[in-house]
Amino acid sequence: MAQSFKDGSIVEVAIVGAGIIGTATAYFLSKAGISVALFDKGRVAGEQSSRNWGAVRQQRREPAELPIMIESNRIWQCLERELEADLDWQQQGLMRVAYDDKTLSWGEDWLPTARDHGLDTSVLTPKQVGDLLPHFNWEACKGAVFTSTDGCAEPEKVAPAFAAAAARLGAQVNDHCAVTAIETKNGRASGVYTEKGFVAADVVLCSSGVWTSRLLKPLGHRHPSLWIKGTAAQTEPAGIEMRKLVAWGKAAHRQRPDGSLTLAANEDGYHDLMLDSLRHGASFIKLAWQNKDLLRFSAGKPLLQDLKG
Fold first, then answer.
1. Which of 20, 121, 192, 195 could form a disulfide with 49 if both were Cys (CB 3.0 to 4.6 A apart)?
2. 9-54+155-219 carries CATH number 3.40.50.720
3. Could you give the C-alpha distances from 34 to 22, 132, 189, in angstroms and in order?
4. What residues contact residue 10 under an 8 Å CB cut-off, 6+ apart?
5. Average pLDDT of every residue of the chain
6. CATH architecture, domain defined by 93-150+229-267
């Protein structure tokens, strides 16, 4: 998508970051008749929004999150028709296979929360797991936690589809055009400076992920955020039906329509220590300690690049 604004143009809302949050917001605002300019320093969905698992998950959410995820799930069921795009949306449920009693009880403990919100989450026996996953070594498992209404889609398709639909409704979609600063007047955001000019706006929405803290810092706002890297890989078509979204042991998979799999390390993260680790680390000490067995740290090239920058 090419630059589609003129230096000095005016919109009601400027959105920084064309990932899933930015593109979806641009679409729904444009649908409501609000003028929007969307910016990204790279391509649409060029970072996390095209590299995640693709899960639309209600299972094991915090109670405060569940109403949002239930409504999101409802939207997803009609989204391909609304955006006029193939998103590889599948609603076969999320299955978390348990190979130990701890994981199984982890799911059982969440069942009252699921029932309070009208979800059909259940604990499956090993035989029921085998009925749904005949190619698994289901006899070795303890069972599974299963939410039949959970689904998944292809991340590489979703945000670009939102961006294209927003553009059809009149939104200015500008990729490869970084926002370098936010302008303020009388304590309010009034526009954004970009690599290719200035755009005035009544509202500036930051949906730029881990870059948000750097964009807000000159305005005196502290927004703690740190990088956590995960590992994922894509296989050739497997030739067998493995359901669409399954977590098992230390790994998880999502199967695409062509039979290929996205494989990912489950509950495993890697953090490269940088200057932001010192600035914002205190905000995440409790969370890091709770996940100490799942998180690894490294000091190397990213830190040196940060120091040079």
1. 20
2. no
3. 14, 46, 17
4. 199, 200, 201
5. 92
6. 2-Layer Sandwich (3.30)
Residues 6 or more apart whose CB falls under 8 angstroms from that of 277 comprise: 226, 271
Which tokens sit at 291? 């996940």
Pairing type for strands 9-16 and 36-39 reads parallel
Tokens at residue 216, please?
């807000």
H or E element, residue 155 = helix 155-168
The predicted model gives 144-157 an average pLDDT of 96
The 10 Å Cβ neighbour count of residue 200 is 16
Domain ranges for the chain, please list them.
9-54+155-219, 93-150+229-267, 270-308
pLDDT at 214 over 90: no
Hey, what are 83's tokens?
């955006």
How many Cα atoms sit within 13 Å of 10 on the Cβ side?
2
Q: What is the pLDDT of residues 48-86, one digit of tens each?
A: 899 888 999 999 999 999 999 999 999 999 999 999 999
Written as six digits, the tokens of 150 are 């959970």
Determine the average pLDDT of the residues in 95-103. 92
Which token pair is 10?
């005016």
User: SS3 sequence, 91-105?
Assistant: CCCEEEEECCHHHHH
What single-letter amino acid sits at 97? V
- Tell whether pTM > 0.85: yes
Question: Is residue 101 predicted with pLDDT exceeding 60?
Answer: yes
Residue 267 has pLDDT above 90, yes or no: no
**Closest by alpha carbon to 175, among 192, 157, 163, 166?**
163
